[in-house]
Amino acid sequence: MPLLAVLLAGCGIRSTQVPTDFGPAPSRVPCALSGTDISTQSSRGVPVQVFLLCSGQLVTVDRSVRIPDGTAEAARRVLVAQGLLDELAETPSTPEQQAGYTTDVRGGMTVSGPRGKDPEDTLRLSTPPENLTSSALAQIVCTFSDSAAAQDDGSVILGGPAPSPLLSYECTPEVRSDPSTTSPPSTAVGGS
Questions:
Q1: What is the pTM of this model?
Q2: Residues 54-100: pLDDT tens digits?
Q3: Within 17-169, where are the H helices?
Q4: Where is the composition biased (Low complexity) (predicted)?
Q5: Could you tell me where the DSSP H helices lie in 29-183?
Q6: What tens digit of pLDDT does each residue of 95-131 get?
Q7: What is the Cα–Cα distance from 148 to 167, expressed in whole angstroms?
Q8: Under DSSP, is residue 135 helix (H, G, I), strand (E, B) or coil?
Q9: Which of 4, 111, 139, 174, by CA, is between 20 and 30 Å from 17?
Q10: What whole-number distance in Å separates Cα of residue 33 and Cα of residue 190?
C-alpha cells in the first residue's frame, strides 16, 4: 500500500525553474460593444432595444423601427411588434458576432393584432409560441415586454394563428439569465 501512495503522489504537475511563455491570457470580453458599433445599428426610426443571446443569457442591443406618422395606436403596437420581430431575426452585425451575440429567432415570422374576442393587447404570431425554442420565445417575450407592444404591466399576450389559445407571458430575471432552459412564465388568457 505505501508504494501505491508514493506512485499516486507523483502524478501531479511539478513546478519548473524554466520560464514558459504561452502568450497572453485570452482577453476576449464577451457581450461588449464599442460606441461606434452601437451607433451603426440605430439608423433613422424609433429607437428600441431587442434582446439577443450572448454568453447564455439575454442582453439588450439598440435598434430602430420605422413607424409611419399618424399611425393609430392599435396599428402602431402591431407595427412596432413586427419591426422588433424583424430585428430579432436579423443576423447580428459583424462586431456583434465578434462580441458573441447570436439570435435564435428565425426570419419569415409575422405578427398580427387581436382576432374575434381576443383582448385588445393580443399579438398573434404566424408561428405558434409553443413551436419556438425556449431561447427564441424568451427573446421575443423580453423584447416585446420592454416595448410599446407590451401591456401596461409589462406582460405580453401571445398566441399563434387564430383560434389557437392565448397566453400572457412575463420576462423575468431568471428568463434573462438562462433563456435556453427557463421558459417565460405564462398564464392562460381567454380569447377568440
A1: 0.78
A2: 999 999 999 988 888 777 777 888 999 999 999 999 999 999 999 99
A3: 35-41, 73-89, 94-98, 134-145
A4: 179-192
A5: 35-41, 73-89, 94-98, 134-145, 173-177
A6: 999 999 999 999 999 999 999 899 999 999 999 999 9
A7: 18
A8: helix
A9: 4
A10: 42
